[in-house]
């Protein structure tokens, strides 16, 4: 996905907020969460760019179209000239919706490829700036299908999903044509041989005349899924050409970083330059951060609480001009001054943020420690803390925590007793 992505730490909320946090497109189609909760010892999964996914396709003999990656318009023209046929110029971003945003263009000539590349490079797609392009040979398409393998931890199984309705958002297929989407559990001990792969294709309603060819590709995708320790392998569209070839025209792969010790070659897929600087900053402090596209920054402790906070902010925002979450950061079990300062620094570093909602339930870490952390964090940040903070505390030692914030009387802090009221206040401040 994790379409990439701190997926493990926020599995449930990724599932709940598909319309806001667009990761791997098949994630909402299984019982939430299909990724397990993340412990502090776990590593975050690695979402790959399309061109990187296709490198793995080539490694595992999954048929696709020839192409190369570039970061210049002149490079796009050179690749198109080398290919010698019409090409697709495709923005390389780890977010959905690039086609609708103008990030995928057909180029009949090398000069067209140059022009499209010039327009796409630097394009901002939902907060992701395009720095690389994949220039790949355009393919004649007779039909478009969908296939994916993913890890469904909620049901303790692997899952194959297949549909004859490819080339569109798979969420839409699930909602409007659920009978056209097959969800097939996979026994890891048995794997996916050709016979079972053919059955998956049949259940996805692929035409009889392509079942054998599709089965070969599906089996190879399973080999990739297992061989690379992936948590997601998705092809949309998997196309049938007029001469009945089966090609993977697009691909999403998420790798389990906990298995990196088995894959030293995976280090080449890391691209710090393409990672959101705020996400990098959060990682440096072992914090889980995801950028969204709204106006309210969210800080919480624990995946479940953050998930609920995203929901209530999105709901409250409907009354305030469509305000939505701008980002979210899970501080986990730590709420020291240093952790809170780092968290606030990351969340406030997003220029879209107009207000911040700090929603903490005191458990092992008591509310008075959280409150002290907030006060000290504001002292540490000084003038850098320049957006209103709405704070809701509950749980262990909540009265003392509220007293500390009340006594501090910081002009940016509004203390609100309930989550719904706090979400409404944060949305109101963001819309002001």
UniProtKB/TrEMBL annotation:
Top EC category: ligase
InterPro entries reported for this sequence: ATP-grasp (IPR011761), ATP-grasp_succ-CoA_synth-type (IPR013650), ATP_grasp_subdomain_1 (IPR013815), Succ-CoA_synthase_bsu_CS (IPR017866), SUCC_ACL_C (IPR005811), Succ_CoA_ligase-like_bsu (IPR005809), Succinyl-CoA_synth-like (IPR016102)
Reactions catalysed according to its record: GTP + succinate + CoA = succinyl-CoA + GDP + phosphate; succinate + ATP + CoA = succinyl-CoA + ADP + phosphate
Cofactor(s) demanded: Mg(2+)
Keyword DNA repair: no
One GO CC term, this protein: succinate-CoA ligase complex
Residues reported to bind Mg(2+): 236, 250
Short name of any one Pfam family annotated for the protein: Ligase_CoA
Pathway: Carbohydrate metabolism; tricarboxylic acid cycle; succinate from succinyl-CoA (ligase route): step 1/1
Stretches assigned to the ATP-grasp domain: 54-268
Binding site for ATP: 90, 97-99, 139, 144
EC numbers on record: 6.2.1.5
Cofactor note: Binds 1 Mg(2+) ion per subunit.
Domain of life assignment: Bacteria
GO molecular function: ATP binding; magnesium ion binding; succinate-CoA ligase (ADP-forming) activity
Entry binding sites for substrate: 301, 363-365
Key words of the record: ATP-binding, Ligase, Magnesium, Metal-binding, Nucleotide-binding, Tricarboxylic acid cycle
One annotated GO biological process: tricarboxylic acid cycle
HAMAP family assigned to the protein according to its UniProt record, in alphabetical order: Succ_CoA_beta
Family statement: Belongs to the succinate/malate CoA ligase beta subunit family.
NCBIfam families on file: PRK00696.1 (NF001913), sucCoAbeta (TIGR01016)
Record's subunit section: Heterotetramer of two alpha and two beta subunits.
Function: Succinyl-CoA synthetase functions in the citric acid cycle (TCA), coupling the hydrolysis of succinyl-CoA to the synthesis of either ATP or GTP and thus represents the only step of substrate-level phosphorylation in the TCA. The beta subunit provides nucleotide specificity of the enzyme and binds the substrate succinate, while the binding sites for coenzyme A and phosphate are found in the alpha subunit.
Name of this chain's protein: Succinate--CoA ligase [ADP-forming] subunit beta
Origin species: Mycobacterium pseudoshottsii
Lineage: Bacteria, Bacillati, Actinomycetota, Actinomycetes, Mycobacteriales
């Amino acid at each position: 996905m994790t379409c990439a992505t701190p997926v493990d730490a926020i599995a449930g909320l990724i599932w709940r907020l598909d319309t806001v946090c667009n990761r791997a497109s098949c994630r909402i189609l299984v019982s939430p969460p299909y990724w397990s909760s993340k412990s502090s010892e776990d590593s975050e999964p690695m979402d790959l760019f399309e061109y990187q996914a296709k490198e793995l396709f080539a490694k595992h003999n999954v048929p696709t179209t020839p192409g190369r990656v570039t970061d210049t318009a002149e490079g796009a023209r050179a690749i198109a000239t080398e290919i010698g046929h019409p090409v697709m110029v495709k923005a390389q971003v780890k977010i959905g919706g690039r086609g609708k945003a103008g990030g995928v263009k057909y180029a009949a000539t090398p000069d067209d490829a140059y022009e499209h590349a010039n327009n796409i490079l630097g394009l901002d797609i939902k907060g992701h700036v395009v720095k690389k392009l994949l220039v790949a040979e355009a393919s004649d398409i007779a039909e478009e299908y969908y296939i994916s393998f993913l890890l469904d931890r909620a049901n303790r199984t692997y899952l194959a999903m297949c549909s004859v309705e490819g080339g569109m958002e798979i969420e839409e297929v699930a909602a409007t044509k659920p009978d056209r989407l097959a969800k097939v559990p996979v026994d890891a001990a048995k794997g996916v041989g050709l016979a079972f792969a053919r059955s998956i294709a049949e259940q996805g309603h692929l035409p009889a005349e392509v079942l054998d060819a599709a089965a070969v590709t599906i089996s190879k995708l399973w080999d990739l899924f297992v061989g690379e320790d992936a948590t997601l392998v998705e092809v949309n569209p998997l196309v049938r050409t007029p001469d009945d070839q089966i090609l993977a025209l697009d691909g999403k792969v998420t790798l389990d970083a906990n298995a990196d010790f088995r894959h030293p070659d995976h280090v080449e897929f890391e691209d710090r330059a393409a990672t959101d600087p705020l996400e990098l900053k959060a990682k440096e402090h072992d914090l889980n951060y995801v950028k969204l596209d709204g106006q309210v920054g969210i800080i919480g402790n624990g995946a479940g609480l953050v998930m609920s906070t995203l929901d209530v902010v999105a709901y409250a925002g409907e009354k305030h001009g469509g305000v939505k979450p701008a980002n979210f950061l899970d501080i986990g079990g730590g709420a020291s001054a240093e952790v809170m300062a780092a968290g606030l620094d990351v969340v406030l570093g997003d220029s879209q943020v107009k207000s911040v909602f700090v929603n903490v339930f005191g458990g092992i870490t008591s509310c008075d420690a959280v409150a002290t952390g907030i006060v000290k964090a504001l002292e540490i940040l000084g003038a850098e803390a320049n957006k209103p903070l709405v704070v809701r505390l509950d749980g262990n030692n909540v009265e003392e925590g509220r007293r500390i914030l009340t006594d501090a009387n910081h002009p940016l802090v509004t203390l609100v007793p309930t989550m719904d009221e706090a979400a409404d206040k944060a949305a109101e401040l963001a819309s002001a």
